[in-house]
Fold this sequence. Notes:
- This protein has 2 domains: about 1-55 and about 80-175, Helix Hairpins (Orthogonal Bundle), CATH 1.10.287; about 175-380 and about 400-530, Kinesin motor domain (Kinesin).
- Helix content is about 50%, strand content about 15%.
- It has helices at about 1-60, 65-70, 80-175, 210-225, 240-245, 265-280, 305-310, 340-350, 385-395, 445, 450-475, 485-490, 490-495, 515-530; strands at about 180-185, 230-235, 285-295, 300-305, 315-320, 320, 330, 335-340, 355-360, 365, 370-380, 425-435, 500-505.
- The longest helix is centred in the N-terminal third of the chain and has 97 residues, at about 80-175.
Amino acid sequence: MPAQAGRWGRFSEHQARQLQRQVQAKEERIVELEMENAVLHLRLAQCRGMTGEAGSAAAGLCPRCLEQDPPRRSTPPAAPQLHRGVQVGVQKLKQDIKALRASSLAAFRACWEHLQDGLSAVEAAVQGAQLCHQALLAWQSKVGQLERSLQEADARYQLEKQKRRVLHNRLVELKGNIRVHCRIRPLLPFDKEFGDPTSQDRVYGPEESQQVVFGDVCPLLTSLIDGYNVCIMAYGQTGCGKSYTMLGPHSKEERIPPWGPHSDLGIMPRAAAELFRLIAENPSRRLQVDLSIVEVYNNNIFDLLAKARGMAASGCRREALTTKDARREVPLLTREPVHSAEDFVALAAGSLRLRAELATLVHARSSRSHLIITATLTRGPAAGGSPADQQAERPPLEGRPASGSRGGASCGRAPAGSPGAQQLKEQVHAKLQLVDLAGSECAGVSGVTGSALRETSFINRSLAALADVLGALSERRGHIPYRNSQLTHFLQDVLGGDAKLLVMLCVSPCRKHVAETLRCLGFGARAKQVQRGQASGGSPAPRKPR
């Protein structure tokens, strides 16, 4: 309504100015005609004066002179004709003036009517604007009430969310911050041993699907979103299904992802999908995911993302370091941002093709290195969120073990100038580590020689170092030998820190592998005996309603 009133007002003003210009033009024409009339009257007076002088001259002559010299006959004077012409001009001028006055009056009346109509429209528009203003005030009052209701609902939601975090964390801790699961792979044709397995473990039997296994992993991803570090580790003998459990069946086709159908997907692709689903449920967190992928090969850490860019082996070698404040760092480690589960899986697939593998008598694609995939969740500044609100979302730091680290130092920084380079100004929210350990094996059984035998030696020594670390932690020794191996040094924050750790033991059902199976179960027993306090990232104090 105010806009319509404004348009009517501008139209009326335009019409009024146009009519005023017409009236002014007519008045100027009237002035011109009056001047012409005055000139004609002046000329008429001059002509009459000339006529009177001629008559007086003729009357002053004596009769004798007239008789002696009679006046010559001349043409009759033009005064009467001029007089008639002046009269005609005056009459015509009067008619023009009369017509001009009539047209001016009509224009004035039309202008007045348009002005009255415009004033009426403006008055109606003003009344409508007043009504709209009153309605706007009413809506503003209602918006204020809704904002207060929203703030109260948000306060209740924050309280309920904190309660949910506490209850979920208690549920996870009841199952154990460190959990050990065992999975028995089914008998395969190359096992040369058929029939039922000797026993059915209490966990995943040979018939259990990948979905069932991931069902026990899924709650840990909720803890990850809540701000707790999570690590899922597969341990076992070569050929017992560790890579199948973590990644899924390997496909011979060169495609991305290089794994089988969706029903056979392993923990890694399923965890990626669940992670981004949980992030999408609450976009206000503004969580960002960065990926780093390394392999520990022959007791050296290699950056597979850097290797994928064509860097030489010497250029992608990294080393785990411990800072003065007991934080573990891996300098120059490449981190790539990923924005979807597809990006996550594709980036992992491209790097896994570079992982060291070798065909042995035990396994056709035996992994010769330990694979560690780290997804780092960072939180950017929330849109419109105050620092106090952001701080309320962060897990508290009280009660964290001294060896724990939840900062970006555990992952290092990307090389300057690389596509994954970032100056991590955002706060690290949590980390997810997926570890596919190389399989323990006996050289006599696998039949390896030469450089492959050297690889086997490094694998077994690193796994032994891992078992020693778990044994020292379970016995609460004063010194934990993390630096005996690059693998344990890299996983120091997970093993002795505050992460929620799930160890997936993969064993064979064959009787001929019973010794390795018992060794694997012994490793799981050591991991199960490790005790730690509550993981950092527990619920902060509830915020008071605003």
